[in-house]
Amino acid sequence: MADGKVLGIGGLFIRSPDPAALAAWYRDHLGIAATESGQPTPDGEWVWMQQSGPTVFAGFAADSDYWQAERQVMLNLRVEGLEALLTRLETAGVAISHREGMEGVGNFARIQDLDGNPLELWEPA
């Protein structure tokens, strides 16, 4: 019998004035099988199958300047080949706002999605 425990993140839901366009942005720029609520991707996918690995779940002080003050949440995505991804994003017109490395942790870059939501791309060390 299961002990009743959380196994991982089961979904991420983002409000948007144009959910179809936002889902397409995530599919086109980041390769995520993002959907509009109640609709599969154009390829018929309903879920994004991820590679297992570490997830950081952390609270930040309300006055943190780590991302925009008017946004409550920042999504951090674990990536492989960060520099190649950043080159593709820049070619597509996506602005890269920060780049940094942390010894033993990895490399980071920050972007915003179509609606201005902050995204941090993390390539673990």
From TrEMBL:
Q: Name one Pfam family in it.
A: Glyoxalase_6
Spell out the InterPro entries in the cross-references: Anthracycline_SecMetBiosynth, Glyas_Bleomycin-R_OHBP_Dase, Glyoxalase_6, VOC_core
Span of domain VOC? 8-124
Q: Where is the signal peptide?
A: none
Annotated protein name in UniProt? Glyoxalase/bleomycin resistance/dioxygenase family protein
Source species, please? Answer: Erythrobacter westpacificensis
